Amino acid sequence: GPPTPPPKPYRNADSPEEVDAWKKANPLVTYYEAVLAELKAAKAGEDKITKWSEACAKFPGIANEDARVLSKELLGKDIFWCWEAPRTREGYFVLNPGIETCVHRMRHFAPYADIMWAETAKPVLDDARRLADGVEGVYGPGEKPYLAYNLSPSFNWDASGMTDAQMHTFCKDLGKLGFTWQFVTLAGFHLSSLNANRLCRTLVEQQSMLGYVEGIQRPEREEGVDTLTHQKWSGADLIDRTLQTMYGHGFSTAIQGEECTENQFGAKPSSGPSA
């Protein structure tokens, strides 16, 4: 039954200690869990417990208003359960996160989504499998939805519990589960930071310009990286064509004219690595 008096709303807590005390005194449960606990406490028959569980488990679920009518029928009374009390100071409703929550929301959003993505705390293949299994057939028998996976640098991959061999096959294993779009957020940021750090160390502290040549320019040439000749990536080609349209051939301010430094890369290097 309702507590006496009802709990003060969580958002009215005045200190971290009061917040902790509120959470301990008022554990967060779904309405389904609250009613199930009451049924078990009342030693209700298995038929009532089964009826309650089946009604709540069936997709797309049961509205809270309808669930309250059913729980009153099974228990003979209404129970205290309030989704307003635990709301945060910003006004957010609180929920218990997890794979089941994600699956439930994904199934609801599936009719309106081209691709679905759920964020996990760690890169765990079993979690991905549970997500994929949970939305299996949402578009019809045998129909697999397109799923996305964030291969996030925010994860400490070495602390994920995976071996190097498991990391090596992780993306392919995700693909087999239906994760068709896999992306690394901020990969360029981390790549740029790492290489900038390495360049500063080798260029300034250790090898002078040889640090740049060995660390960047030669590997760019050897691996056919297009930014080896970078002027065109800054729009030089477009500017030259625009100026040519305006002035015709032979204008004097061409970026990629005969003396353009990019032409140096068309010939063999004048000197190579030396001991």
Report on the biggest sheet. Answer: 3 strands, parallel
Shape, per Cα inertia axes:
elongated
Strand order of the largest sheet: 1-2-3
Q: What is the first-to-last residue Cα distance?
A: 85 Å
What is the N-to-C order of secondary-structure elements (H for helix, E for strand)? HHHHHEHEHEHHH
Structural class: mainly alpha
Q: What is the radius of gyration computed over CA atoms, rounded to a whole number of angstroms?
A: 31 Å
Spans of 5+ residues with little confidence (pLDDT < 50)?
none
Number of helical regions: 10
Averaged pLDDT:
86
- How many DSSP E strands? 3
User: What percent of residues are in strands?
Assistant: under 5%
> Which bin fits the share of residues in helices?
40-55%
Please give a structural write-up:
With 275 residues, the protein is mainly alpha-helical. The protein has ten helices and three strands. The protein has a three-stranded parallel beta sheet with strand order 1-2-3. Strand 2 (147-150), helix 7 (164-177) and strand 3 form a beta-alpha-beta unit. Helix 2 (31-41) packs antiparallel against helix 3 (46-57), helix 2 runs parallel beside helix 4 and helix 8 packs across helix 9 (209-222). The chain is elongated, with a radius of gyration of 31 Å. It starts with 15 loop residues before the first helix and ends in a 28-residue tail after the last helix. 5% of the residues are buried. The mean pLDDT is 86.
